[in-house]
Amino acid sequence: MINDDNNQSLSANNDAQNDSQNPPDADNLWQLDESALANKYATDPENGLSTAEAAARLQHNGRNELETKRTSRFVQFIKQFNNSIIYILAAAAVLTFFMHHYSDSIVIGLVIIANAIIGYVQERQAGNALERIREMLISKNFVIRDGKKLEIDARELVVGDLVNLEAGDAVPADMRLISADNFNVQESVLTGETNPVEKQEEPMTDTSLALADRKNMVYASTAVTSGSAVGIVTATAADTEIGHIQQSVSDVKETTTPLMRNLNSLGVGLSIAIVVAAVLLFLLGMVMDTYSLPTLLIAVITMVVGSMPEGLPASTSVVLAMGTRQMTKKNVIVKSLPAVETLGAVDIVNTDKTGTLTKNEMTVTKVVTPEHTFDVTGVGYDDNGGVNFDGHLKLNGQKVDWHQDKAMEWLVKIAGQTTDAELHFENNRWELTGEPTDGALTTLFRKMTGHDPEVDEIESLPFDSAFRFSARLADLDGQRLLMVKGSPATVLRLTDQANQTAYWDNAMDDLTADGLRVVALAYQVVDDDVTDIDPKAISGLHLAGFVGIIDPPREEAATAIAELRQAGVDVKMITGDHPDTAMAIANKLNLAANVKAITGPEIDAMDDQQLQEHIDDYNVFARATPNNKLRIVRAQQANNHVVSMTGDGVNDAPALKQADIGVAMGIKGTEVAKESADMVLADDDFADIVAAVREGRHVFDNIRKTIRFLLPTSFAEGLVVIISILMGHELPLYPTQLLWINMVSALTIQFAFIFEPPEAGIMARGPRNVKAGLLSKLDYFEIGYVSFLISGLGIFAYDYLTALGLPNVVGSTMSLNIIIFGKIFYLFNLRNDHPVISKYFFQNKMAFYIIGILILLQLGIIYLPFMQSVFHTTSINFWYGWGIPIVCGIVVLIVTEIGKFIRFRRMGKDRVLD
């Protein structure tokens, strides 16, 4: 039985749980003081909840763990067959089976099963991503209940619990801090920013704050890096920020790629057209009474089978698979075949800043001393570099050694003596042990001196938010020194530079305008008997100067952005960082001609319609939460953009899954991000995206060429039947011969396009218009006249030879050969946009090998006795049996080359696909 007090507590707890489901700004917990928090969550800020109260809340609200809905694997697999293209393929498989075209039926069946397996694997991977998030809340933590400190499973925590956090702990739930001592938390899992965030217990006055700015809040799944704190649990399980992310990942539905939408539309359209044509042809044949009913029925079915491009799904899959293989060689791992082409269609690439566009290695790039300003060369933790002009500074037109600036000498010494960071060269890169800011100072010292710092420490004072600096007492060069680093405003008040505030204020403004984080370094010589540091007694320091620190942009990222912009792709930065820092990096990378930023709180103030209307005005999104990222992607998609999302953190997972193509980082990316994405950059190199876009466009070109090849050659087979019925002639081709044409093409010639290299200027044209479909009006016109040309030549040869008195089987064999050679010569026309006789003729050597194999197969079907009996062929005279088909193929080539010339004269050099 729960007493009245417990009922009141449960009511308060329910209010808290309900509130936490609202947008983050709804509670404004950061504004509440300790008594208001205790009242809101019905808890005691000294003794915590009672054991009975905690048990009652746990029973009422459930455990602090994330749950995932599990669907049986069998149901997941069966669901993969529930789409329109599978229905069409299944109908074709059944039709070919009942017509005893077993090989076609088997091939189509294998394609259906392969597609289902790929879809099933992708869905299972999405489920794995949710499971990874669920595992992030499993830990043990110290909680205060009944005034006693207990260690319990984090899953037993409830809202209102008083939790004690120490360095190394995983934060088990969302909490509002009521005490904090030098407390820093790594929040990159939620914000994407790698620098630990200094926390406080004091209420904050702002009514609207981005998650990264809530200094007195901590969140589940983040990690404590230093200090200690006590907090009141404000949300558990699904109501936490990480729980919201999990729900977002779960709610995001898998989107069909632009290519698959285009192929589905094309497949449905072709199927309807062929079925309608078959019905009309059957009715017309009945009216004309040219054939008996069984013969007419067989002829119509033959037309349907001949016209259906059964090899299209298989050809598309092979082209995509080849693209996947090529991308793997370029360190891009593609998890689903259609994703290969999608990146080639994107017109927006959203990307994180830290570790993607920047090195994620804090670097000193500016040093300001009382007399000079130095530019520090070299980026990241590599010690290659120095100050400008090869380690020298120009003063009054003269090059002088930087050592002549005594303040600079002191600054370098202080940098080495006050840092605790260590750098190790592992796996061909420098790895940091310690704080990123200390890493920047260690690197500065190594650049200037060529060796690691050695510290003879007497005592250290860690950074404290109360006085906003750290200090170290150490012996150096026969002197005992007190060295201080910290907030410029604070350190300046402790120095002898207080009368030069205008100079330092200007320096501070210049550094922050460049997006630099500024740290002041100062020193004081003390007596040898001084062994303790009293922060309240520090004064009269000598200011060595300021250092400006930034996470530097990757040089390859700047080049990649320039190439993407040239290719018509806009690059947008989405980051949890401060807008000034984000803007500075964006300008250094030349992200856009006019860089314009918006923050997460500003996005939260817009509804979905307003965001959609204004989303294209911005290219930098700062202080962005996971929900902001998801809304950004959705707003861009609502404006008909094909969107790529690049990220590496759990906070990126919902947006990665929502985007048309999600791209995760392979090295620094979390498992959640990699499993939510469609593509993984194995080496974390943003420049790989350029190669992926190029390959995506190359893949689309080859798929489009394959379709332009398959449709007219398939329709030509159907037209042979249609024209024969309309003219009242005997069918030139037998059903088994049509089957041979489809089968031999599927095994050979149509795969020639997968080896076709990318055309010049492929990155100079903009992204394709996915709304326009796969084929243009000119393509349909070309398909029409090529179909009539090939079929007409086949019928003419059949009629001509049979009129000369040759057996029908000779005419059929000739027609078969003419259609095959029509395909061969049409292949040369479609291979690229250049005239057939050009330096590009032998560029695709595999095409010639494939044609050779096809001709060998043709020799087999015509001259081998057992093949003749199955396919109704006969041996033919070489001169007219092969000469006439070759001449007909040349006619096809000449006509289509003239068509290509007229096409490009009218359209110009740039190809128009809509």
Essential attributes:
single chain, 914 residues, alpha+beta, 8-stranded mixed β-sheet, 31 helices, 26 strands, 49% helix, disordered N terminus
* Coarse structural class: alpha+beta
Main β-sheet description: 8 strands, mixed
Number of strand segments:
26
Shape: elongated
**How far apart are the termini?**
72 Å
Radius of gyration: 36 Å
Write out the strand line-up for the largest beta sheet, numbering strands in chain order.
8-26-25-24-9-21-23-22
Number of helices: 31
Low confidence ranges: 1-26, 389-398, 909-914
Helical content band: 40-55%
Assess the beta-strand content as a share of residues: 15-25%
Q: Average the pLDDT over all residues and give the rounded result.
A: 81
Subcellular location: Endomembrane system
GO cellular component, one term: endomembrane system
Membrane topology: Multi-pass membrane protein
Protein name: Cation-transporting P-type ATPase
Question: How would you sum up this structure, described in words?
Answer:
α18 packs parallel to α25 and α25 crosses α27. This protein has an 8-stranded mixed beta sheet with strand order 8-26-25-24-9-21-23-22, with helices on both faces. β16 and β17 form a beta hairpin. With 914 residues, the chain is of the alpha+beta class. The relative contact order is 0.09. It has 31 helices and 26 strands. It is 49% helix and 16% strand. It is elongated, with a radius of gyration of 36 Å. The N terminus and C terminus are likely disordered.
